[in-house]
Amino acid sequence: MDGPSYPQCSSKGCRADATWQLLWNNPKLHTPDYRKTWLACEDHRTTLGQFLDVRGFLREVTPFGAASDAPIS
Fold first, then answer.
1. Separation CA 34–CA 31 (nearest Å)
2. By the 8 A CB rule, do 4 and 44 touch?
3. Which domain of life is it from (predicted)?
4. CB neighbours of 70 closer than 8 A, spacing ≥ 6?
């Protein structure tokens, strides 16, 4: 198989498994109910969240890896 077998952190250059999902939108481009998702490892959850929050984009941070978040096949 080529590529990762489990979703990886969205931080540039990071290849760690994702443990958090950061749900966000840009209110200038998206409707209020629309959400985009960035994935984060433990090390990058705070920095990615701060990046989005300072711009007013961050909507919610939730754990990633629940039963519904199956690995990539």
1. 5
2. no
3. Bacteria
4. none
